[in-house]
Amino acid sequence: MSAAGPLKRTPLFEVHRQLGARMVPFGGWEMPVQYAGILEEHRAVRERAGLFDISHMGEIEIAGPGALEAIQYLTSNDASRLSVGEVQYSALITPEGTFVDDITVYKFAADRYWLTVNAANIEKDCAWIHEHVISWAEVRNISNDMALVALQGPRAREILEKLTSVGLGTLRYFRFVEGQVVGIDCCISRTGYTGEDGFEIYIPPQHAAALWHALLDAGTPMGLQPCGLGARDTLRLEAKMALYGQDIDDRHTVLEADLGWIVKLEKGEFIGREALARQKTDGISRKLIGFEMCGRGIARPHYAIVKDSQPIGEVTSGGPAPSLGKNIGLGYVAVQYAAIGTEFDIMIRGQTVAARVVRTPFYKRKK
Q1: What would the DSSP string read from start to end of 201-258?
Q2: How far is CA 311 from CA 60, 247, 295, 306, 315, in A?
Q3: Quick one: 58-142 is in which CATH superfamily?
Q4: Topology of domain 13-52+146-238, per CATH?
Q5: Per residue in 249-286, pLDDT tens?
Q6: Burial, 68: exposed, middle or buried (Cβ in 10 Å; 0-12, 13-18, 19+)?
Q7: What is the spatial distance between Cα 179 and Cα 170, in angstroms, rounded to a whole number?
Q8: Cα distances (angstroms) measured from residue 6 to each of 2, 55, 124, 163, 196
Q9: pLDDT < 70: residue spans in the chain
Q10: Which end of the chain is more exposed for a tag (fewer CB within 10 A), N or C?
Q11: Fold of 285-358
Q12: What is the reported pLDDT for 244?
């Protein structure tokens, strides 16, 4: 039971229980954290393929003649650059330049877009959007009309091609297409949150179990495994993909989060533009960096980062990197300590453990 009431369940909840998944609360939902084990599932995605239930994510449709104008005002990136069938990583931001949420924007038509948003932020994001653009476009929360599964890993395309006639070979990264998988109408997006090639499939909730079983039946001979939130977290951390509520939030700006590439000041007026333009001119005082542990120990969120016994920042994410055989983390530090190679300490249970700033992403898949 969450503070806000009973935990929500995805259309695949019973499937997870039948597969023996360990279920945990996450963002107001009861979700699988692991099946066979986090390490085994992590390696499956890196070496073969993994299947994730991410139906807890939210979808918001913005439609009508003012749809693009609304999205341009709400988000930091430039949605006018999108063609139909393209996806864009962006952010809903506050007037202070901090995060309401990080999102993906899908362009279905000149007057129809989808925003995919984080599970815990669905109601908040809908309220924010309604408040700021209610007279410009029609805004609909279509989250309950969608289930979403992610098929990730080097063999993902090979597996999915067994179940669809959609030409996946011509579907480029951060593109999507509407088609059928096992005869079910869906939207196939070549996106993901693991650092691997893969696909996210949006499908009506009543067909989610059929799709899940079809993918497992087709992929198990090729090493496909169902995966939970545990592996999703280690995979995204290796790829330096930020997690809302830990690495990005309403206390840190998009520039401080090292996501300046999704800020397009030249596109015109948008919420937070003035604050970000000022910060870009004046410079940031803190920055999200990646680090590896030099000593024995695992950095966890909220651990202090210190230099010469003085606090210089805080860990936001941390843990083992199974693909790299070392412990890694993300954290905000005073900008003078953000250069590659800078050494500092992480405070772990009252003891200092050496760490140093490294290039990110920590892991890059082979092309």
Answers
A1: EEE-GGGHHHHHHHHHHHHGGGTEEEE-HHHHHHHHHHTT---BTTTB-TTSBTTTTT
A2: 41, 18, 18, 4, 11
A3: Aminomethyltransferase beta-barrel domains (3.30.70.1400)
A4: Gyrase A; domain 2 (3.30.1360)
A5: 999 999 999 999 999 999 999 999 999 999 999 999 99
A6: buried
A7: 14
A8: 6, 17, 18, 36, 34
A9: 1-4
A10: C
A11: Elongation Factor Tu (Ef-tu); domain 3 (2.40.30)
A12: 98
Residue 365 CB neighbours (<10 A): 15
| Sequence-separated (6 or more) residues with CB below 8 Å from residue 103 | 75, 89, 90, 91, 92, 115, 116, 117, 118, 125
User: Which tokens go with 238?
Assistant: 């290796």
Q: Is 166 helix (H, G, I), strand (E, B) or coil?
A: coil
In the sheet where 147-152 sits, what is the strand order?
176-181, 184-189, 198-203, 147-152, 49-53, 224-227
**Cα 353 to Cα 344: distance, rounded to the nearest angstrom:** 8
For the chain, state the CA radius of gyration.
21
Which candidate, 159, 237, 146, places its Cα nearest to that of 197?
159
pTM over 0.85: yes
Where does residue 152 rank: exposed (0-12), middle (13-18), buried (19+ CB within 10 A)? buried
Torsion of CA 15, 18, 20, 22, to 10 degrees: 50
- Distance separating alpha carbons of residues 338 and 356, to the nearest angstrom: 10
- Show the tokens assigned to 198: 């893969």
Q: What does the pLDDT read at residue 4?
A: 56
CATH topology identical between 13-52+146-238 and 58-142: no
Distance CA 357, CA 178 (A): 42
Q: What is d(CA 307, CA 324) in angstroms, rounded to the nearest whole number?
A: 26
Cα separation, 254 vs 93, whole angstroms: 8
Domain boundaries, the chain: 13-52+146-238, 58-142, 285-358
* Pure H helices in the chain: 13-18, 38-47, 67-74, 122-133, 156-161, 208-219, 229-238, 273-282
Specify the DSSP class assigned to residue 159. H
